[in-house]
Automatic annotation (TrEMBL):
It holds the Pfam family Acyl-CoA_dh_M. Residues 313-479 form the Acyl-CoA oxidase C-alpha1 domain. Its main location: other. Keywords: FAD, Fatty acid metabolism, Flavoprotein, Lipid metabolism, Oxidoreductase, Peroxisome. Residues 162-277 form the Acyl-CoA oxidase/dehydrogenase middle domain. It is found in: Peroxisome. This is acyl-CoA oxidase. GO terms for molecular function: acyl-CoA oxidase activity; FAD binding; fatty acid binding. Residues 1-25, 688-709 are annotated as: Disordered.
Amino acid sequence: MTTTDDTSAIAASLTRRGKDRPDTLRKQADAALRAAVAAELQDVLDGRWAEVKDATRAVITEKNLRPDDTLSLDEARERTAAQMHDILATGAPRGTFRTEHGGTGDIGATLSGIETVGGADLSLMVKAGVQWGLWGGAVENLGTERHIPLIKDIIELRTLGSFAMTERGHGSDVQSLETTAVYDRDTHEFVINTPTPTAEKWYIGNAANHARMAAVFCQLYTPDADGELGESHGVHCIVVEVRDENGQAMPGVGIGDHGYKGGLKGVDNGTFTFDNVRVPRENLLNRFADVSEDGEYSSPIESVGARFFTMLGALIRGRITVGASAGAAARTSLTIATRYANQRRQFAPDDSLPENKLIEHRKHRLRLIPLIAKSYALQLATNQLIARIHELESADIDRTDMTKEQRWDQRELEAHAAALKAANTAHATATIQECREACGGAGYMTENLLTTFKADSDVFTTFEGDNVVMAQLAAKELLTGFSREVGDLKPLELVRFGLDNFGTLLKRRTAADTLIQNLVDSFTDREETSLFDPGYQVELLTEREDRLLMSLIRRIRPAQKMDPAEAADLVDKAQDHLLECAWAHVDRIVLESMLEAEASLPDGDSKKIFEQVRDVYVLDIIHSHSGWYQEQNLLTGTRTKAARAALNDLVDSLGPWSQTLVDAFAVPESVAGVPLLTAEEDMVTRAQTNPAAGTPGAGGSAGSAKSAE
């Protein structure tokens, strides 16, 4: 727990700074000091499950777990499937399963281990995520005791499977899935069908080659008292055997292969169709609902909507893993690009002087260092999210009868998971592209991995939840006091619920952490407080979140007096505002994660460097939204200009430490040591031996750095 002494120490360090000009970090430091700083920062970034991450890195190095784009499609798929056993050997996948099912119950270990794999090979990460996270997670979290033997086979890779939710016609709108499961009272079986072309299961991992079984999400029907087909009980999950022991499709099961995709060559995505496929009644994953032998449907959760969202809430781990792994891929890309920037030389300031390294050009620093800062911030927020889900899911909670406080915690967890999934994957997409460009022509070579990470991570913005939908979900949860029931509310009810619960929502947020509140209370005058004051930074980001939220409520308030169709149209037209609220919310919670991590660092070089990383993160946000801050009279034009100048000063100060910052990401050398870095080292050696030869030019990254100076 953070004390007032921690707050005072942070505040005291500010007295050594000018109001809006940062201190300059030492430029010269020996290798031992840099290694010590990197180690301290790595400890903070790795967090609670550091040992799991280290063990996974060791396996990545030993088994050379990294993409190989020279392989054919079939070769890549088989290689990835074989490497799953290397991941299992780390023990991390067992954590997501309860001890009585053959696991260890260490959920945080699994999420942290799979995240680390994502920093090396996203195909392997996705394959592992499908097997243990989605397929295994569905059986583990939606099934009961009768499914334990299957769970043990899933853990040990004896039964590979698929998570068959998405259909050609419906992805994010899961409640509208069309695949049907009709109970046959005479045979005690479910009959699975694909009733329309749009009901074909689509983009399903493991489907094309390796799945023996699938967790199939479908509309569940039981006969009524007269034996006629009644109404759907909503979407449920049923285990369906899709291949026999020889790998052949089961009768009535149609299997397709999507072939080459934009990336993820090692993942065998495909399709499923079902034509009167019969499965035993016991294959229904019946934790939240069941069907008796005589066809009577029962559930401890009466509401169809509440039951649906309770079911999906139990599957949140996949969303967290996707976001975390995207962040890991971004960190690997930044490691490569930053190391290159500290080696590659282009343009001498004078004919008598050596050429500058890329990192010595301010424009290049502005390309990379704010992205490094955001990677730090998102990593720390993700660590907190993983810790939260670990604590919540390790507790003995009956999800069919949760207390009010447990429901609050679950809603907040789901909102943060959605928000950070969107933030991490959007950051990865932008960061990997910037890193590719920052390495010029060399960055475009497949052997240097950046194009592979770019291709493999691209889909992360849409699978496990489209980012636009995820951001809207987070904003709706924010608007309604993080209420999962928003999914059952009409637009008019949404407005009323939000207005009624806004005060409670703000109270819950501001009372979250003593450190943050003490920091906010420590400043009194906006114009006189330093831009580097952490309390002021929290206040600025919180003001943006709160004002956007209040203006959203005012914007949709007229829906209270409209008919349902008009209200729905009004709320739909406010979606841009919902998204702004979501991103502002992410900015604020991520900053708070950084401040909590900062308080754990001892005084010294590491803490000074981390403070400036945090400053870069915040000032980059303020600069990006400078117009809004001026419109709201929260910052004057003079201060927004000062924020931009301070950002320049900060990247100048951190430039000499940029490689140390990415060393703290601890990317295994077997992954990060790509040929472009080795080639650059060779060129530097040759140039030192024969200075007249200089360093040959390549691809346009340095040109852009020079022209922007």
